[in-house]
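--- STAGE predict ---
source: upstream dedup step, 1 unique chain passed
mode: sequence only
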Amino acid sequence: MGKTLFDKIWDAHVVHTLEGGTDVLYIDKHFIHEVTSPQAFDGLRNRGIPVFRIDHTVATADHNVPTLNQHLPINDPLSRHQVETLTRNCEEFGVPLYGLGHPYQGIVHVIGPELGITKPGMTIVCGDSHTSTHGAFGAIAFGIGTSQVEQVLSTQCIMQTKPKRMRISVEGTLKPGVLSKDIILYIISRLTASGGTGYFVEYAGSAIRSLTMEARMTICNMSIEMGARGGMIAPDETTFAYVKGREFAPQGEAYEKALAYWKTLFTDADAPFDKEYVFDAAAIEPMITYGTNPGMGIGITGHIPTLQEVDNQVTYQKSLQYMGLEPGQELLGKKIDHIFIGSCTNSRIEDLRLVAEFLKGKSKAGHVQAMIIPGSKQVELQARREGLDKVFEEAGFFLREPGCSACLGMNEDKIPAGEYCVSTSNRNFEGRQGPGARTMLASPLTAAACAIAGKIVDVREHLN
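--- STAGE serialize ---
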């Protein structure tokens, strides 16, 4: 019987299987940042042990960094303390750090792929749930807790129970104005925020294969939002072309040797999955969320479910009360206050190019506050080289400096209580973008269109 892509990579990285079935898994690359690493470094310090594989560890500052005036000291005391602590820890333990001011600084799940650190066939972990982003390259990538961060720093291994396997195929052709963000929001709305619990997902099908690498990263990024341990896509020529020539990708003969291995990374035709779903790409329209988890999403022309259409009415009503919405309500025409284009989900150069192309010759509504946050210093500089910042400014948007920003409100970028933000980030939990903030998840194109109109609109009616 054949093997799935997931099984091929997992089995190749098992160092030892413990009694009871738990695997000791070797980790190829460990990304760390300022929020989940301080206690882990303290643990190493208290035990008097070093980082075991410094060359397999990469650090960056992203969650707490400001997105304006990064050349100045950080104003917020807690954020400043966390960033400075990361700097001291990396200096003490010899870990490479891409901190503020470094040309490679950025959101951890943006810099790994763009630098060629992320490669097919790897096992990758980080103390951040959206580590699943890297699965777009045909890697097993997942988030871990702080105690596990210490475990990987000290041993380059982690103890894990092997998840079940799920395949989600999206077949056919996407309609104009529908992006990969709409695909994943649609899938989560159909499977719910817990539909992937206990599984590692492989995305497949003609619609998935047609996507660029940056679009694939958006899909895998949000696998965790349906409860899955992670998501992955089999590498192909699109993957190989993206990786080739990047800063830390193999070069010359080493690349050819790696490529030969990468081409073996696919699911065998007779490989079994524990669960499978198939969706029609043509059935997907621009999506938007209305509630307080990413599974509470609808097509832009749809309506919020009525009480009779949902199972847990108490949780549902609590969510709508927080969002200031009603059962059965349409969202088209709903006034908004903010748009946020950024996060590890949608802050890459391709996202910014799409938005800039849409914004040419347009201006945002006067009452809307618009933030565009690049995912890395490299994305920011590329956008400026291409003149995208000028397009944004003419439309009333401003390109800021890289960081997680208003995705999670752990920094200075927050949405005021009670106000609505159409956001390209990955979570719409209560208070996620600031205490009392009301978040509606959508694609970069939908967010841009809503900023221009000052209300929720169907971007398909505004395409050039």
